[in-house]
């Protein structure tokens, strides 16, 4: 929970861009002796928090001093601790929905009974502090709903039940929650409860809609941000409440980063601006130790501007932030003759972050045509420039002027090339007709390649990387580049279709990553392996790009270790085409990898979509006999497109299905369930069917393809297993559509009502019928899935009863 006290909160350690915010230190868990002593007076006339026979029982003060030896306080502490211990032990054991529901019901009832039992007899200050402590413990266990309703909500109910923060101003907010002012001892607890309520609300939104697909989820996030802003607005004039401001900026940054990732940078911008200005306005937070966090907020604001295609404002804000950082430096130099080494590192990190944000736009704007002059500019020949010594172009000269190390120059190159509005598989040159901008992009890739060669190429001509992160290398002025930065650069080369650079560097990077053991390296390795596998399918014309490959690269050289999983089937059937190699590679990277080493979601989702588009076209060319079951089975067991269909289905269900388009999932499920139904119920589907025992699997009856080591797994199953598999696949697809409809439902219900036609009478020539709902295609798919599941369920029941 929020870090309370004075502004001695430890300075967070953050990375320059797109970083997770630091977690503030939790409050102490013990009950202070002063709290117990100070609450003695309040215990003599406790607030009437509940009514009942407990009011007639002795108060805590009756049993003696209000310390740890007081039997009533000890009994309350014991019951709460037993409940928390029970929750820690049993939470992992509740796996099914029924078990989870029963677990939460039992915990909520137990906690409610504890508060009801002890609330009237405890000192008010002790009771309120205990509410917050238990709420913090529940948040650590991710029991946010229970913490909200039974802890933070209980505390805030003492002030006002019907107060609407979204419609209140600062004065109303202070009147309701801080009637005694900010000097009162309960003010810190009230801030704690307000922050805890907002955190729980945000986590509940994420639990119910992790990708913020519903408009209501986004609206709820914005309301939570407004609440944090109101809390900070109240606390800002009070210097001793600087910890409220600091924690508030962390919470705002966390929620805004989520919104930015989901494409809502325009909505997040005003709150990030507010957080930045608050850090500047709070005198205690102007300390050098908070400069790193201020720079991270500044960077996030600039990134929002760039995401909104307002680069001019992003550069202007970066220049303003740079001036603020320099002001702080001048103030510190006035107080001491020279800066300490730690302070220099803080200033260096913050300054480079802002310089990168300025370079992101400046490198392009400095090269655009000036419309007031007609004199043509002389363009640099990119291929000739690559043979010249550094610095060779205007871009490299600008990098030399602004940055003093290889690491910082490479970060500037990455940020200038990055575009949050493009996905990696959306390949192609930069989206502009301006030749000068395209030249700058080529010069940036040329500079990035040269920086890699100068810093990370060893004597043997092979790339090698340190274990440190790029930010650490920047702060230490190292002329080295981290492996994560190099991987990002190669992904950008793939996106901008610099194929020679991509192929030569990706091979060496994969070779290096395969020698590492940490999950991050394995994840990066799989990302590059997948991009290498899909490159022949995108670069059909075998273009090379403008940037030369690395000197030691030979065309066609392969660094990637062979992926053997299911490749035997593809080879034995003669299907060695690139599309099937990609499917096999993706299957191996997703289905055979641990959870912490999965490839990037963006790459996996786009590749599944790519494979399905190819598979859909291939399936249209598959001709299957509707009369002879033996020919049908032989066709199913040897056809490459049906094997590809099965692979795509397995990848989807190994991955998170909620991240994938429900229409695609429904179409794949219908195709595969139709095949499984034909295999599991041959008497109904085929005229020629051998009267053999259905208890044997299809592969036992007809055998697999000759010479095949690994046949299609669904062929090996028995008919009942095939039907049951089809039933389960349809059930998952139906659940996926139900979830999607729930997440995308509009407040007026227009996105889930039945498809119908409404008559519009304002046309002169006559009435016109117009469809009301645009999602009739999804509804038709939904109905088709339910119909297929019902049909298969009837067949499966008949077969099970017959056997």
UniProtKB/TrEMBL annotation:
GO BP, sorted A to Z: cilium assembly
Region (Disordered): 1-50
Low complexity biased stretches: 8-18
Positions with biased composition (Polar residues): 30-50
Listed InterPro entries: CFAP54 (IPR027912)
Biased composition range(s): Pro residues: 19-28
Protein name: Cilia- and flagella-associated protein 54
Protein source organism: Bos mutus (wild yak)
